[in-house]
Amino acid sequence: MELEELEKRMEELKAMSEKQEATANYYDTKLHTIIAAYFIWERAFCFAISNKTNSPNYFSSLICHANWRLILALSSLYSLVYILLYLDAALMLYRSELKQNLILNKHAQLYHQISKIKQEFNSIDSSSMEAEEDLILLINSSSTFRRSEERIFYMSTIFCALVCVASLELYACKSILCS
Questions:
Q1: Residue ranges per structural domain of the chain
Q2: What are the transmembrane regions (predicted)?
Q3: Cα(70)–Cα(68) distance, integer angstroms
Q4: pTM score over 0.90
């Protein structure tokens, strides 16, 4: 009876883990989409500004001296919006991966309990099976932890790159307009 309940709970955890994995994949895709959209929008914005200011007429000097602060503000605003969108998706990805890691740890604990119950019924050499299971649990927990650390490093690196690109672009707004 207890074995059946544990196996049922294990199947539920497996379904929850698959759902969390799908959620993590969704937020990962969302992150990449936000990054691509940011760079496309940035290039389109810079291209539009450079085309306006390269025309040799009265308006280019007017934009340079009077409205460059407006363009700087617009550039800052859309950079801030994309950075906030990125942070939202990154935090949701991190939360879904944490939930998935918790589910995998519970899954491993249930597997260990089920194997102990099966050992009691079958009276198999328990020392070799326990050593094998402990090794499997150690490998699973360290690989998910390593994957989580790699993901955090990746997201932090991308965030720093976005901030650097936004800073460069803010500087370029004035230099492109007033050169």
A1: 2-177
A2: 70-94, 152-172
A3: 5
A4: no
